[in-house]
Structure prediction request, 331 residues.
Amino acid sequence: MRAVVIGAGVGGACAALALTEIGVTVQIYEASERSADVSGWVTLGPSASTVLDQLGVGAEVRRRGFPVTRVTTTDTVSGRQHSFERFEETHRWPSTHVWRRDLLSVLRTRLAEVGVTSCFGSRVDPADVAADLLVGADGARSMTRRALGDHRDPTFAGQLICYGHSEHVLGELPEGVLHFWSRPDGVAGYAGHRGHGSFWFSRGDAESAQSATGQPELLAALADLPIAKLVESSRVSRPVALYELEPSGIWHTTTTVLIGDAAHAVSPAAGRGASSAIEDAVFLARAIRDSPTVEAGLQAYDRIRRPVAMHTYRPTPGLRVPRVSAAELRW
Prediction:
């Protein structure tokens, strides 16, 4: 079987690696250059590490990042705190915090090691692809999705965010803990590690993506938080508008399928974007392997993954996102 993957981001690279693992010949196209010089970072869930181990890159990704073993949330109005561990039963590793550029670099190096033909700096029209399987992993504004007849654009999620990174850490806060401070109109977050520095963000409500709300307002919201000490020593991003895509559209035809943000983009507020894309990749490959036809495999993938995506997009009050066990992610 021959597959073409459009998009060598986190989900696309993992899909190419997972399909290669089951014996599919894969070619991948990516519009950007191979250097993976992208900004930002991700916190991968325990399930993501389980998948990355199977793809041969887990240890290197964890070496490039640092473990996040706990999440603590403080309501700045009431003072109430909530805390939970970032270990999950059946998974060996906790969450991992890593620069996005490092994660992509590791994945793209692995593509070369396993013989995936990778075409970087190349755009391809999905209509021109001839393959047994076409995987659209080309992001929230996916051309593959449009080729399937779904012409929706992602919708503004109602918030802006700015990110910061400092070489310094906050000594009064424990390392390897993801700290959140919630307020009525937004959230701030921080994770620090002496070997990696401090990673923080400020996210706030906005009337539109072009709102006058900007960096000064987002930084002012940090005034009474420990993060305020880091602002002057940090590289701070410009405000970024957050978008999302409801996962109710077309996900596949008989030979074409969408994964990751191309099918179900969520705001970073959900904390699930990269991990969901990585899970999609392995579920897709396994469904293809275990089904009599490509079409049947894509139908099975849809049945398994769409309910999880729907719950992540609009969580049911009192019900947590279904966790994927290690057994479900193994070949």
Notes: The CA atoms of residues 10 and 104 lie 6 Å apart. The two ends are 18 Å apart (CA to CA). Residues 155-243 form one domain. The chain has two domains: 2-38+99-154+246-329, 155-243.
